[in-house]
Amino acid sequence: MSKASADASLTSCTIPLGSIQIKEMTTGINWKILVPFVLTPTLALGLFIPVYLKIQVSGEVPENEILIPLGVFGTLGLWLILTVILRAKKIHFTDSRLKINRLFSLKTFEYDRSDIVTWDITGHMNQWDNYKILQFKTKDNNVHSVVSYELTKFEELCKWISKTRAPKEKIGIWNFVVAEYGISFLTAFIIIVGLLVELTLK
User: Fold this and answer.
1) Domain count, the chain
2) Which residues are CB-contacts of 13 (< 8 A; sequence separation ≥ 6)?
3) What global pTM score does this model have?
4) Where does residue 16 rank: exposed (0-12), middle (13-18), buried (19+ CB within 10 A)?
5) Residue 154's closest CA among 19, 6, 18, 28?
6) At what angle do helices 40-58 and 183-200 cross, to 10 degrees?
7) Does residue 201 carry a pLDDT above 50?
8) Range of the domain at 39
9) Which of 67, 71, 182, 184 fits 82 for a cystine, CB–CB 3.0-4.6 Å?
């Protein structure tokens, strides 16, 4: 397969628009998300917490050779956990309605087809997986995003969005990166740096 055809397959919905009638569907957790957002933070914090507590109990000021790796593991683990908390969602949709439940923030968004202002889908390829990011803007000035590896029923959701009257327009990947990962990373970084600075002030 050529690169052009591969890119085209990544940025399109694989379900033909008129192939099925959507009655009622609810997304579930895709098993692919377990490694980056469950196993990785568990291992990272599993290294950070025991070492941090040991240094805190000892009362000794750690060297930079210890602080830097400790900061990396701590930030990585906390960042991924906060990202899950901010992004975790369940999407329920019928032929005419879409409902997004944010599982940890307890926010709920409900939309008709006419509430979708614009949408875009971008494909990404790496050595581990090919995945898509679906983004759509709504009349309440929100931009929602769904990644193909985080939820099941992704293609059906893609079909639902594509059947609205909203135009397909480029939204921009940076909006997704900053909104969905930037805030959680900055929060995790500040918290971990604060904890490590506390260790050096003894």
Assistant:
1) 1
2) 121, 155, 158, 159, 162
3) 0.79
4) exposed
5) 28
6) 20
7) yes
8) 3-200
9) 184
